[in-house]
Amino acid sequence: xxxxxxxxxxxxxxxxxxxxxxxxxxxxxxxxxxxxxxxxxxxxxxxxxxxxxxxxxxxxxxxxxxxxxxxxxxxxxxxxxxxxxxxxxxxxxxxxxxxxxxxxxxxxxxxxxxxxxxxxxxxxxxxxxxxxxxx
Length: 135
Known about the structure:
The structure is a single chain. This protein is mainly α. The protein has one domain. 65% of the residues lie in helices and 0% in strands. It is built from eight helices and no strands. Helix 1 runs antiparallel to helix 8, helix 2 (17-23) runs antiparallel to helix 4 and helix 6 (76-98) crosses helix 8. The protein is globular and about 50 Å long.
């Protein structure tokens, strides 16, 4: 099973969209999966069920920080710029494929029908993270 399908399986087993995306990369980013799970918990349903930015994309953006930042606040300007570029590039690619950025629009913005399913948003975000972050 590829990483995107593993993320979808995690979602089917109770992970929210953010958790599903972030947790499948635990080995790649050197962070314990349980910590990623806890960090991603508030991003379900477009952040606390507010139906804001898709949680799957939020998970990919979290990964960008883990890949680009060394946690050194003295070096933050350089790492923050790389993280923001990656997050922006992933957002653009995500919208091209999922048709929308906002969870509520993704789910109902197509005359009451979903533009993209949660499972497909998870696949898209996982694939984009792999491509953009070299994971």
